[in-house]
């Protein structure tokens, strides 16, 4: 089994299934595809049916999309407990994961994941306020009910889906409640996340199009 993913520093979608594989002790090989340099888009199209990362390759199975990969892993390794065992909790976990997958556009567009960076005050908090309120609601309700530290008590696929949000909150010092910051710290304290973060910090590549100054300059020029 192999996970094809992109730059650790920037690729939030790559982080999600990688965390699941690593945290739950599922053996896998890694293939890093850089999101820069000559011909990188063509290289990616040869490896991914969608032309995007991540992609899981398992024998003849080629599975793109983070949430689909997590589902595939859950089906293949049901004893790992990637989703909560309780049927209702499992449905809730999948629902909030799907919401993360398809929503929170302002936060994703205006506050890109950049693990090496520290940009407090760089993102207009008002522009992402609605997304942050909904995220705080999800995190607060689920951790209150489960007792934390993760959304359903133990780390699950839902936490993997929200992990990049935690990085955005820290990178841009976005205003959230103390309870939300406790969840951010729980994500950062996860050994699997610490491993990803350490490798991201060591990466030498800079993808200009994913840097906040370039993104904001491009938006201002429109």
What does this structure look like?
With 222 residues, the chain is α+β, with helices and mostly antiparallel strands. It has two domains: 2-80, 3-Layer(aba) Sandwich (Glutaredoxin), CATH 3.40.30; 87-196, Glutathione S-transferase Yfyf (Class Pi), Chain A, domain 2, CATH 1.20.1050. The chain contains ten helices and four strands. The protein has helices at residues 12-23, 40-47, 66-76, 87-102, 105-110, 129-146, 157-171, 178-189, 191-202, 212-221; strands at 2-5, 29-32, 55-58, 61-64. Strands 2-1-3-4 form a four-stranded mixed β-sheet, covered by helices on one side. The radius of gyration is 17 Å and the shape is globular. The mean pLDDT is 95.
Please supply descriptive tags for the structure shown above.
single chain; 222 residues; alpha+beta; Glutaredoxin; Glutathione S-transferase Yfyf (Class Pi), Chain A, domain 2; 4-stranded mixed beta sheet; 10 helices; globular
């Amino acid at each position: 089994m192999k996970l094809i993913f992109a730059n650790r520093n920037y690729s939030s979608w790559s982080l999600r299934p990688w965390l699941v594989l690593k945290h739950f002790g599922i053996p896998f090989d890694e293939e890093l595809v850089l999101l820069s340099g000559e011909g990188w888009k063509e290289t990616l199209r040869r490896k991914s049916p969608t032309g995007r990362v991540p992609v899981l390759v398992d024998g003849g199975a080629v599975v793109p999309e983070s949430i689909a990969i997590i589902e595939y892993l859950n089906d293949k390794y049901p004893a790992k407990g990637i989703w909560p065992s309780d049927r209702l909790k499992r449905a809730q976990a999948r629902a909030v994961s799907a919401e993360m997958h398809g929503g929170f556009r302002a936060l994703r567009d205006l506050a890109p994941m950049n693990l090496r960076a520290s940009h407090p005050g760089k993102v207009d908090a008002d522009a992402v306020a609605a997304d942050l309120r909904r995220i705080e609601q999800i995190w607060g309700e689920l951790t209150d009910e489960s007792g934390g530290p993760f959304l359903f008590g133990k780390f699950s696929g839902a936490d993997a889906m929200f992990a990049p949000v935690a990085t955005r909150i820290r990178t841009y010092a976005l205003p959230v409640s103390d309870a939300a910051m406790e969840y951010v710290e729980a994500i950062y304290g996860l050994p699997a996340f610490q491993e990803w973060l350490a490798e991201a910090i060591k990466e030498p590549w800079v993808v200009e199009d994913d840097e906040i100054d370039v993104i904001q300059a491009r938006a201002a020029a429109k």
